[in-house]
Description:
Blueprint: H1 14-20, H2 23-26, H3 30-46, H4 52-70, H5 83-95, H6 97-101, H7 108-144, E1 149-154, E2 157-163, H8 164-189, H9 208-214, H10 224-229, H11 232-258, E3 266-267, H12 286-309, H13 323-346, E4 349-350, H14 352-359, H15 366-375, H16 380-397, H17 406-412, H18 420-423, H19 426-431, H20 441-456
Antiparallel strand pairs: 1-2, 3-4
Amino acid sequence: MKLWSGRFSKDVDSRVNDFNSSISFDKRLYRQDIEGSMAHAEMLCKCGIISSEDNRAIQNGLKGILEDVETGKLDFSADAEDIHMNIETVLTERIGDAGKRLHTARSRNDQVAVDIRLYMRNEIDAVSGELNALIKTVTDIAEKTTDYVMPSYTHLQRAQPVSFAHYIMAYAQMFLRDRLRLADCRKRLNFCPLGAGALATTTYPIDRNMTAELLGFDGICENSIDAVSDRDFLIEFCSDCAMTMMHLSRFCEEIILWCSSEFGFITLDDAFSTGSSIMPQKKNPDVAELCRGKTGRVYGSLTALLTVMKSLPLAYNKDMQEDKEAVFDCADTVKMCLHVFTPMLATATVNRDKLRAAASKGFINATDCADYLAKKGLPFRDAYKTVGKAVMYCEKTGKDFESLTMDEYKELSPLFENDIYEAINLENCMLNRKAAGGPSPESVKIQIENLKKANETI
Length: 458
């Protein structure tokens, strides 16, 4: 019999029961539901709403249920509809009337709201921990590659010389911001909805601040209707995860390109690669490709939650049951991707010679050549035009800047002297870009240290 069956003259149709049931997915909230119930019972006891004997029975009963769930001795029933009713039903079977008093001054509306907030605190910490590991991996690689010259790109065309360290530290900065966003999300969700009841609190003399403190919240949700009727913190989490996956997907795209024979910038470890069912020579970057593909899945979770919530009137509506599968899948997907991507990156080999060979093509020192003329007194726009002519000349003659003779340089501008060869040396082009945030080893080392410090404070 349903706990709420007193109002009804008929049993629920089995089809409705199956459709309405959420135990198949909300059972993962069992620990949070028990923790919330234990705190609620403690508060009821302190406020004189239930006896100390009933509280002891409830506390011991809930501890026993938790142990039985975690040791596999207790199975949940679809007849009990959701995790909340499952636990309350078992508790009442075990301790009698005391179990029936647990739900005093509480509704499933504020109960599920506190459960999901408790659960999401743990999920945020877990995702942030995976990001922390990835950031450390990126900085470890960066520290070893500050003098590995490679081309940077705009429009996927070779642009200017940077180091491999400088290139991948861009992703470290993105992942750092992802951690900061998650930390902000955690702060905003860390307020306790318990005591809001169905939507209008209760006539019992409860102490909401006590429950909030027992559960580690920073305070209570100030408006009881808002406490049970919004899931913006879940939407924010999914949005943060979507941005994390967007950054990860971009990095994956780079890796997929880099490990191709056309680039050859990195070599993935065999343990993080797969083969082909028909082509014996293949070594595929499936981890990176799957992470890139699963980004769409996380985007889908965000879109689903936004759509579920977009036109709901206050306060609680059954539509909101749809929040859990979306947010659970979002968190699971992000954690899974980060957990496998990080060791894949850590075990990859960076091919320094291939990076340097690519940097020697595409005239990526052209801006440095123009800067050379500008420093000799030629207006930059005129210098820019002169170097453009130099590029066109080289393309026609099959040369590059390094192989042009002094006579050829003089034909382009009398300001060229022998020191041009030093100015356009790719290593020097990188070394001389010492501005804060730039690619010189000196600058990149500062970036690494600053990022490490910032990451440690989250």
